[in-house]
Amino acid sequence: MTVEEYNDCVQHYADNVYRFVLKNIRDEEKASDIVQDAFEKMWRHHANVDGAKGKSYLFSTAYHVLIDHTRREKHSVRMEEADLQEHSHERQYSDLQEVLHLALEKLPEDQKMVVMMRDYEGYSYEEIGEMTGLSESQVKVYIYRARVFLRKYIGKMEVVV
């Protein structure tokens, strides 16, 4: 990757990477730090990065930095071990976005990342697999499990609305 290609990546993808990280951790300072770390790692390895794959390399690096950061801060609970009754609610509430964010926080980090990449950012299964290092079928499994959990957590839309 040349210096010009690196600068193009910064110019074209910095906002997208920041938005992606911010949606996952909702802390502007930490998101900025993670994005900066991702660009720093990309710069340190720019000689080994193919310029055409700069976007994938950047998002993959940001994803891994984000995972490392969240693992250091908290332990995630596996979906199979989670007590769904403890995390569900029956109250009536009208702020759908807040309910969805609360539900997303309950997901294991890997599932949260792939569902955010797919549903919020619009990446294909193949692109998500490249960025995360997961196989395409594993990405599909994680997204399926996350959506099942979200459906159970949120419940019927009539209750939420």
From TrEMBL:
Superkingdom, natural source: Bacteria
GO terms of molecular function: DNA binding; sigma factor activity
Positions of the RNA polymerase sigma-70 region domain: 10-74
Keywords: DNA-binding, Sigma factor, Transcription, Transcription regulation
Domain RNA polymerase sigma factor 70 region 4 type, first and last residues per copy: 98-150
GO biological process: DNA-templated transcription initiation
SUPFAM superfamilies reported for this sequence: Sigma2 domain of RNA polymerase sigma factors, Sigma3 and sigma4 domains of RNA polymerase sigma factors
Similarity-based family: Belongs to the sigma-70 factor family. ECF subfamily.
Protein's recorded name: RNA polymerase sigma-70 factor (ECF subfamily)
